[in-house]
């Protein structure tokens, strides 16, 4: 029975298909917004490409918008310079980065300079020589 109904179905009517298509487009246009003003996101890194080699435009001739430059430079600042207090809990760790005590380089208790013994000096020289010979190959 189902096969007979499928075979008896009317052929596809182009007029009805066009009416359905028009109705779909009208519904889509009702919800669409047309954006004509575009700007660069100041919080995303900007990758600047160089001009063409034979171009007559130079950066000195172009005028830059000072407010745009201020926003771009402000977006690339460190969080401690951008905000007066930490915005997240992760920023609280290390927010105050000034040392608690003044470092004294002559104090042997807190300063451990690099010390080389005869063995470490020899191995350092051997390592450098090995790298130089590998670079020559």
TrEMBL record:
Main localisation: other
A Pfam family per the record: FAM183
UniProt keyword Cytoplasm present: yes
GO-annotated cellular components: ciliary base; cytoskeleton
Keywords: Cell projection, Cytoplasm, Cytoskeleton
Family statement drawn from the similarity comment of this UniProt entry: Belongs to the CFAP144 family.
Cited PANTHER family: PROTEIN FAM183B
Protein's name according to its UniProt entry: Protein FAM183A
Organism, as annotated: Alosa alosa
């Amino acid at each position: 029975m189902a096969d007979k109904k499928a075979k008896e179905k009317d052929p596809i009517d182009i007029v009805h298909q066009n009416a359905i298509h028009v109705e779909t487009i009208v519904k889509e246009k009702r919800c669409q917004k047309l954006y004509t003003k575009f700007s660069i996101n100041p919080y995303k890194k900007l990758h600047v490409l160089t001009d063409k080699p034979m171009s007559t435009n130079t950066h000195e001739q172009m005028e830059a918008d000072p407010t745009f430059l201020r926003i771009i430079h402000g977006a690339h600042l460190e969080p401690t310079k951008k905000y007066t207090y930490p915005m997240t809990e992760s920023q609280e760790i290390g927010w105050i980065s000034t040392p608690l005590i003044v470092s004294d380089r002559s104090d042997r208790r807190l300063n451990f300079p690099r010390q080389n013994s005869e063995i470490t000096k020899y191995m350092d020289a051997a390592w450098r020589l090995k790298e130089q010979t590998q670079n020559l190959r």
